[in-house]
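Replying to the earlier thread about multi-chain prediction with a worked example.

Input:
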Amino acid sequence: MTRPSIVFLLLVSLGAMGLVGICIHTSSLSSAPRSLEEQLKNLVIQYGLTDLCLFTEARYTRHPSMADLHSAFQDHPGAFDHFPTGSFIFPPPHLRHPVWSSSPSIPPGKTYQDLDSKVSSRLEFSEASSPPTKFSSPFIPWTPFWRPQARK
Amino acid sequence: MMLRWIRRQLNLLDFALFSLRRRKARNLALVLVYTLVVFWLGSVIFFSRAMQNQAGKLLKDSPEILVQRLCAGRHELIPLEYLDQIRAIRGVQQARERLWGYYYDPGSQANYTIMVEASQGSGLEPGWIMVGSGVLRSFAAKDQESLTFRSYRGDFLRLRVKEVFSSDSELLTSDLILMEQGDFKKLFGFPEGFATDLVVEVRNPKERSTVAEKIAQSLPDTRPILRDEILRTYQALFDWRGGMALMLLISAVLAFLILAWDKATGLSADEKKEIGILKATGWETGDVMLLKALEGMVLSLSAFLCGTLFAYLHVFHFSWILMAPALRGWAVLYPRFPLDPSFGPGDLAVLFFLTVAPYTVATMVPCWKAATTDPDRVMRGQI
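Result:
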């Protein structure tokens, strides 16, 4: 009679080989030139497309990278972000850290980021050295308890 | 010596398997739940990695710099005079306008992206359009040969479908309607001398950020968006450690924590009794620990292998059918597209350490506690 341990080890080996096979298959797929991929790339070049067509429910979810101020209150005062996708997608990174504004020649107060309370409060978390931003929102931005308060 | 060691491990594994078989129903239920957790975590990781990869590959050739105008914090139409100022910046190779917008069709309750073709490659004439497969699927049209739009004046504009984008390209074109410039202006009452945004091409890729900075300085009411930023948007969007994927992961991690917590809080009376008997019959603490580690490993490995394989099949062969409702939101029009498998051993390792390691640790702690206690007390249930 076959020992259960041998049967188990055989099954585990089979499963592990399956995973290795999947990994090899995946890497061979990504390295091979594919006509469909070329076709899609041509569409991007020809029509100057900037986003994937994933979430079509609102303009700022259809084109996340082109979104203006991807935030609540953007349509009218008190308007919460009511589309479900809006709670999944964060504001695009360039709203928080635009590559072109890294130079000190653009004063921080001149960027569009300060217009958006959600983006500004995120900036507060990530940039400890940045000066406090003025908020037009009636809500007080939450400061994490582990972050030391600035001395007055 | 080596052979003896292997034989000993096999004997212990046999014992562990028999021990698991004694509590068949309980362990089967455990493996099932564990597999589901691994399956869900694996699905999220595979899906997000594949989407990142797909977005990176496809949007690699998106416009180098896009210039939007902002007015009162909102995206506004940009005057075409800005083109001359941008062209005057050293390093700019080419600058052109883009006309695009959204059209809401009350019949289908869907939003469509309307775009004027950037190049004259397809030779669209007035009255003709090119549409994505999703448009024909959802647009409230009687036939598939023409679509009727309601213009900004309230009159109807009927445009004939010249071509339908291949269904393989739905990831980019599902809601796209491409039309001629005159029709676009007629539909939206788009003012002359304005564009939605401007596309700028730079001679030297290293100068992109410098050119963008110069644009932002010379035209302070504009916002340049670099290609890298578009790519980063999608990398961030589908980063499994944040954004959408994190939301999906949280539920799986919570379920897993409950499972691990249940194991960590203690052993059942049967298990305690078993450990006590083993200790009383001469088993060393190390042997008991090894036995329990093997039991945990059998459960973990079975759940990990099954969960991972099912996750792979779910994402890449069954079009992530269980995740689709979460991604669709309220969208009426949703693209149908296959995902290319793209993940590496690193992703599998992450999945392994997210699931197998915490479970194994959680099972070892109570076993160690029971194995180091006096067998008599363990069998009497005094710990």
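Chain A touches chain B through 71 residues (CB under 8 Å).

Feel free to reuse this layout for your own posts.
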